[in-house]
Every structure is written in C-alpha cells, then in structure tokens.
Automatic annotation (TrEMBL):
Highest taxon, organism lineage: Bacteria
Span of domain CstA N-terminal: 76-640
GO biological process, one term: cellular response to starvation
Organismal lineage: Bacteria, Bacillati, Actinomycetota, Actinomycetes, Micrococcales
Family of this protein: Belongs to the peptide transporter carbon starvation (CstA) (TC 2.A.114) family.
Primary residence: membrane
Low complexity biased stretches: 1-12
Species annotation: Microbacterium ginsengiterrae
PANTHER family: INNER MEMBRANE PEPTIDE TRANSPORTER, PYRUVATE_PROTON SYMPORTER BTST
Entry keyword annotation includes Metal-binding: no
Keyword field contains Ribosomal protein: no
Name of the protein in question: Carbon starvation protein
Length: 764
C-alpha cells in the first residue's frame, strides 16, 4: 500500500475501455486489483449458495407474514429481528450489486483521493474496517434512536415497513451513490457537486439549504444528548471519559502501535467498561454527585465547546478513533440486544396501528401518519445528513473504490438495524410508562402524579398507570425521575435495560444496563455532532472561498477556526433555544429536524440523478433506482412542509401556534404560561416556521433544476464529465469486511509493502 510520489509518477493512463481508462500502475508493485476473471469466479453460484439464499428468503417471508398478516393481540419481538436481517442480507447481496454493476461501476485500478491527495489530516487512506466504523458512527446519530421511539406512538407496523424497506430502496442507495460520486470528484461536498452539476441557481440553492439544514440537524442531535445526560451524574461522567479514551486510542494507533486495530479495540473496550462502572461509583459519592449533576444548559454549553474543539483537531487524533470506538460499542450493543430479544422473546402488546396513527393527534408529536411517520423516522430509513458525511469526511479516507459499497450501502443497513432495535425496545415497555416519558413537561407537569393523570386521561386500552410504576422504575434504573425524559434516548435505554436484565443479570443490573445504554447513545450522537460540524466547516470554507480563495485551503488554520466557529455558533443558538423551549425542545423541534433532513435527502438524490444521467446512454435504463426514492421523498417532504406552514391546528402548524400565543400575549391571557414562557414559544415557533418556508423553497428549486438538467442530458445522450482526472493506484486493499480467498492471496503479496508504510508513518 505505497502512496509515495515517486511511485505515483510512474503510473500512467492508457486506452479507454468501456468508459474507463486502462490505468497502468507501478510495474515494481503487485497487482492493485483483482482481475475480472477472479471476480467472476468468486461470484459463481453453487448449490450450497442457492440453498442458503433460499433459506434466508423463506425465513424473511415467514417473519413478514407474522408481523403484517398473522398478527394477533400480541406479536413476538423475534420476528422483527428475522424480518430485518433477512431483508438486509437480500438487499445487500442483490440490490446493491445491481447498483455497483450498472450505476457506480467502481475500478480498483484507479486511485482514490485519499491516495492521490494524502496529507495526513483530511486525506488519509484508512483501513476499511476502521473507516466503516468511522462512517457508521458519523451517520448514526440521534435519528435511528429518536425517530423510531417517537413514531412508536403510531404503532409498530408502519414504522417497521418504512425502516426496513425504505433503507434498502432509498436510504442505502443515497448513501452509496453520494459516497461514490463524491470520491470520484476528490471528496467534494454535496453542495460543491450540486454547483458543478446543476449550475449557479441550483448549486447556490443547494449550498444554502445544506448549510442551514446542517445547523438544524446538528442542533437536534446535540439536544438529544443534553436531554439524556441532564441531571444524570452517572451519564455525564461516563460520556466525558470517552474523550480522553479516544485521544489515547488515536495516539496509540498513530505512533505507539500502528496498524494494531484489534489490540487498540480491546484496550478501548476495557477502558469504556471501566468508565461505565466507574460512573456508577462516582455518582454515588457526595463529590461526584455535586460535580457531575449538571443542568441541561450547562451540558449544552459543554457540547458547544466540544463541537468546536473536535472539529478542528486532526481527523486521526479524535474523530476516527472515537468513531471506531463508539462503533465497536454500538454494533456490539445492537447485536447483543438482538440476541437478547431472540432469547427472551418479549411479547409486544402495542397495536400494529394505534389510535394516534389513525387520528394524528398524539401527545408525543402531532400530524397524520402520512407524511409525518416518514419524516419522524428519518435516519433509520433515509437521511439527508448522511449525504453530508458521504460527501464530506468519508470519501477523503477511502482506500479503494470497491469499498464504497461495503461502507456506504452496508453502513446504512447497520443503521437501519439500530432503528429497528430502538423501535422494539420502545414498544417492549409498558405503554403508560412510554407516554409518561415522552410527553412534554407542559402536559405532565414534570411530576409522577401529573404524568399519571395525563396518561390515564388518554383513554388507551390496557393502560392503567400508577405513581408507583413511575417511581419504582426510576429507582430501578438509578434515576431520580423518568417523567418527561423526552428525546427518545431515555426510553430506548429503559427498553434495552428491560430486555437485557431478563437475559443477563436480572433486576440487580437494571441500573447498569440503563446507564450503559445512555452512554452508548450519547457516543452515537456526539460522533455525529463532531463529524457534522467538520463537514459543515468544509462546506462553509468552500462557499466563502468563492470570494476569498484562501478559505478553500483546508490546511489554512485561520480559515478552519473561523468557519468552525460560525457553524458552531449557528447550531449552538438553535440548541439553546431547544433546551429552554417551554413546550419541550424535542417535541417541537424534531418535526423540523425530520423535514429538513428529508429535504436534504431529496437534494442529494436530485444531484445524483443528474450525475447518472450525464454519464451517458448506458446508464439511463437504471436511472429509476435513483429517481424513484427521489420522487417519494419529494412528495412526503413537501406535503409535511405544507402541514407545518399552513395547518390551522396549533398542535401541527408552527404559524398557527405562533398566532395562538401572540393573541394570548396581547390579551394578557396567562392560561398558556407566564409572559416569559409565552414569549419563548412565540420566538421559537417564528424561527421554526421561517426555516420551514426557506427549506422547502430551496429544495423545490434544486429539484426543478435537477429535473431540467437530467432531461437535457437524456436528450443529448450524456453530459459533461466532472470527475477528477484518473490516476493509477499504487496500493491494494480488499473490498469487504472479510476478504475473499483471492483477496487474501493478493494481500499476502502486499504485506511487506504495508509493513514498510506503517513503519514510515510511525517514524514521521
């Protein structure tokens, strides 16, 4: 895996074959890719393979039948696991292969930006396993945890279908194609690609929309962390300790033991467990309780400071090792939870579609099932935020082109599995406790008695909540209260603890599992906060660079600091608004997050559609793979935006709520709260309503321009090729997590060169 300039200079491009240049690498090196014959041999069907895939298909069919058709008064949670895993396996093995073969068409003989532009900071060829961890951690923020938990008020079936089917046909398609096309363009952001592919009008609208939407997304991600850690000394200590652990791992992997991924993973896991166990001990001491029992506003300011520092540090020091560490934990916890579900087999009593799914007036969030289910469950099925990561940090770290399928499509499938596990955890707990935890304090009064009165007034079948149920559950998990712990994270933690204690440890370990889950979720989200801030900084630097070219130099530290500070100030302002929101920040801001997130997905898919159309006639028959999810996303996001802007129902429409509180303020009516509360609601709904209008207008402009560009490219038989000039690769790495037999044989030829490069990196 040599990337020296001397070797690169010996590479040359020969004739063009099937649209790809015949690249010739350094003749002194082993082959940099498998031959087409080797690929064909390894993908050949055999009887055992056929039997295996038939079995997977049959198991998946049975699971879906049990969930969607046979369902009775209860449904066993085990069918969620089987339906998800079987669908993911089929989608990855077959659908993503179609995309790879007919749309992306990777060429491992071609060097990636990480190899061509290697600078030790942003462009760094990274082991695919570590990069998978970094990418997954960066994309898997609050969305797959919060969205499914909130959407559980509508029942389990609509969310399950959208999470599993949506990711195969939409979310993973977006992540994979954006990652690949960004990599082919030097790691350009989605905004930069939009400007190149769609021209000045479409590109400008896309850039402005991406920057504003990123501010909302990162703010809501941070808000979930604040709500999870607020007044929880155990959680604050454990999460704070992950920062020095990640820094240690970065130094260890970079200088002390380069390449020892397994070794540093074990060390990190042990330290992480020590942080969780130590958090329980610290929280039980007088000094620990005083030091780490922090108000939500204090935690919010701490996260703002963390976001700035993390985004300006070198990617190898904190971002990559922290993401790998958190991914190691995340995937391990989700797999462990899935295993516990198979062992415990909890019975789900939540209806397939609840009364709130039918009338759209639930206490957790308001709005009809269509379109609000599809914007509430964002990241688990389709997320525009992922397009920013897939066109921000990850394409600058890819070693080989064929790895984009494993990292882009495969990473999104894993996030979808997280979302399904979050949904199962949320619906496995008592419905009364679920609504007590997720209804805002304005409805519950923030007390056990108030929550009981409110939840029982909903008239839900089989729900009879008592104060003892709430206080007893809070005591079991080692928290003073679980009432109005909105944001999804505490609910997921309770559900996970409820399932895990039945499989391992019993009631005595309930508090451990709860705080283990809180730390696991906070890790999830903080990695998205720092990665999102870094990507936003890249976009802003490029935008300002149109007027001041020096800003486009990502190694120019003043530009890095200024742009990072601007973006952190933007999402920090929204975060503080959410923390101080009288109506419950998550309950009012999350719909805006979901809509903005899906609008960004529509923008990303529109850009990809234009790129594919420009590639020529051979790609047009497969354009529907991108166009279909784009059309669906456009419909749900525009419809949801119209509801939030024009609905006369205050619980749904931002402006209707704004006018309601303005009238109360003008008339001196104090039934909605004192003057400070009323003014805060007026301010927040005005911000939300204004942003809703801006977001949907910009997204519509981008989509219209993209359709025009696509039609023009179809008529002309293609368009301008904006990819970077191809350079022959002088390094090798397998495409998937587990190398095939042919890949292992080629890896052995490269081992001496790999060892030499690692020693050189450690020396420098």
């Amino acid at each position: 895996m040599s990337s020296s300039s001397s070797r690169r200079s010996q590479s040359r491009a020969g004739a063009v074959i099937d649209g790809e240049p015949d690249l010739v690498s350094d003749p002194n090196l082993p082959p940099t890719a498998l031959t087409p014959e080797q690929h064909a041999k390894e993908s050949r069907w055999t009887v055992p393979k056929i039997v295996l895939w038939v079995a997977i298909a049959l198991l998946g069919a049975v699971a879906w039948t049990m969930l969607a058709i046979v369902r009775g008064e209860t449904v066993n949670a085990i069918w969620f696991v089987f339906a998800a895993v079987c669908t993911y396996l089929i989608g990855y093995r077959f659908y993503s292969k179609v995309i790879e073969r007919y749309i992306t068409r990777p060429n491992d003989r071609r060097a990636t930006p990480a190899e061509v532009k290697q600078d030790g900071k942003d462009y760094v060829p990274t082991d695919r396993r570590v990069l998978y961890g970094h990418h997954f951690a960066a994309i898997a923020g609050a969305g797959p945890l919060v969205g499914p938990v909130l959407a559980a008020q509508m029942g389990y079936l609509p969310g399950t279908i959208w999470i599993i089917v949506g990711v195969v046909l939409a979310g993973a398609v977006q992540d994979y194609t954006v990652l690949f096309f960004s990599m082919r363009r030097g790691g350009r952001t989605i905004g930069q690609m939009a400007r190149q592919e769609l021209g000045r009008i479409g590109g400008t609208a896309a850039i402005i929309a991406a920057l504003l939407i990123m501010i909302i997304i990162v703010a809501i991600l941070a808000l979930v962390v604040v709500n999870a850690l607020g007044e929880s000394p155990w959680g604050v200590f454990s999460v704070a300790m992950t920062i020095p652990i990640a820094l240690f791992m970065g130094v260890y992997l970079r200088f002390l033991r380069p390449g020892k991924v397994t070794e540093v993973s074990i060390i990190g896991f042990v330290l992480l467990m020590a942080a969780i166990i130590g958090g329980g001990w610290v929280a039980g001491t007088e000094w620990g309780a005083a030091m780490f029992h922090l108000d939500r506003e204090v935690i919010a300011w701490g996260i703002i400071a963390y976001g700035f520092i993390a985004a300006i540090l070198p990617v190898w020091l904190l971002l990559a090792p922290r993401d790998y560490l958190s991914t190691f934990m995340k995937i391990g916890v989700i797999v462990m939870l899935a295993g516990a579900i198979v062992i415990v087999r909890p019975e789900i009593t939540v209806p397939a579609v609840t009364v709130f799914g039918e009338n759209g007036m639930g206490p957790v969030f308001s709005g009809p099932l269509f379109p609000f289910l599809f914007v509430t469950i964002a990241c688990g099925a389709l997320s525009g935020f992922h397009a920013l990561i897939s066109s921000g940090t990850t394409p600058k770290l890819i070693e080989k082109e064929r790895q984009t399928r494993f990292i882009g499509y495969g990473g999104m499938l894993m996030e979808s599995f997280v979302a399904i596990m979050a949904l199962v955890a949320a619906i496995s707990i008592d419905q009364g406790i679920y609504f007590a935890m997720n209804s805002p304090a304005a409805l519950t009064g923030g007390t056990a008695e108030g929550a009981v009165a409110f939840v029982n007034s909903l008239g839900l079948t089989g729900v009879n909540l008592t104060p003892d149920m709430l206080t007893g559950t809070a005591a079991d998990v080692g928290e003073p209260s679980i009432v109005s712990r909105t944001g999804g994270a505490p609910t997921l933690a309770l559900g996970l603890a409820h399932i895990m204690q039945q499989a391992l440890g019993g009631q005595a370990l309930m508090a451990f599992w709860y705080h283990f889950a809180i730390m696991f979720e906070a890790l999830f989200i903080l990695t998205a906060v720092d990665a999102g801030t870094r990507v936003a900084r890249f976009m802003l630097q490029d935008t300002i660079g149109a007027w001041f070219p020096k800003f486009r130099d990502v190694s120019w530290r003043p530009g890095v600091w200024i742009c990072t500070a601007i973006m952190v100030a933007g999402w920090g302002y929204i975060l503080i608004l959410g923390v101080t929101d009288p109506l419950g920040g998550i309950n009012t801001f999350f719909p805006l997050f979901g809509i903005a997130n899906q609008l960004l997905a529509a923008i990303a898919l529109a850009v990809v559609m234009a790129i594919v159309a420009k590639r020529g006639k051979n790609y047009l028959r497969w354009l529907w793979i991108v166009a279909a999810p784009l059309a669906f996303t456009a419909v749900i996001t525009i419809t949801a935006s119209m509801y939030k802007i024009f609905s006369p129902v205050p619980a749904i429409g931002y402006w209707a709520n704004n006018f309601k509180y303005q009238e109360a303020l003008a008339s001196g009516d104090t039934s909605l709260g004192d003057t400070a509360v009323v003014e805060a609601v007026i301010r927040n709904t005005a911000v939300q309503g204004t942003l809703s209008i801006i977001f949907v207008v910009l997204a519509i402009i981008v989509m219209i321009v993209a359709v025009i560009v696509t039609i023009k490219a179809i008529r002309n038989g293609g368009g301008e090729n904006t990819e970077d000039a191809p350079v022959a690769s002088n390094r090798y790495a397998p495409a998937g997590f587990i190398p095939t037999r042919a890949e292992r044989e080629l890896e052995k030829e490269w081992e001496p060169i790999v060892d030499e490069e690692r020693r050189s990196t450690a020396h420098h």
